[in-house]
Amino acid sequence: MAINLIIEQAKNVRTRQQPIRTMSLIPVQIKITYKNNIHLYQKLAPKIKELQALGLTHNEMVCRLKISRKTILKSFLYLKDSQENANQL
Asked: What local confidence, expressed as pLDDT, does residue 11 receive?
């Protein structure tokens, strides 16, 4: 009796008109890009070296380049390390 009742209820249930789309049915194209992330202090190192050669102070470089003092200090450390590595070779 219970089985007949379940079958009768199942006949009255509306079904979807369209099939459910799964991920396998959706065409997807993914573009993988490789970024060579260069830090700002590394990009600005040549310019900061040039400004230092012109005699600008750290505060003047901060105002002129509109960057933080910490970025300028990191750039100086980067230049120092790169020069030391070049001398070791």
From this structure: 61
pTM of the model: 0.55
pLDDT digits (tens, 9 = 90+) for 9-66: 656 666 666 666 666 666 778 887 777 788 999 999 999 999 999 999 999 999 999 9
Establish if 14 belongs to a structural domain. Answer: no
Alpha-carbon dihedral sign for residues 82, 84, 87, 89: negative
Distance CA 48, CA 60 (A): 11
Tokens 């194209």 belong to residue = 29
Query: What does the alpha-carbon distance between residue 48 and residue 75 come to, in Å, rounded to a whole number?
Result: 7
Task: List the domain range (segments joined by +) for residue 43.
Answer: 38-89
Number of domains composing the chain: 1
**Domain presence at residue 42:** yes
Nearest to 48 by CA among 71, 29, 32: 71
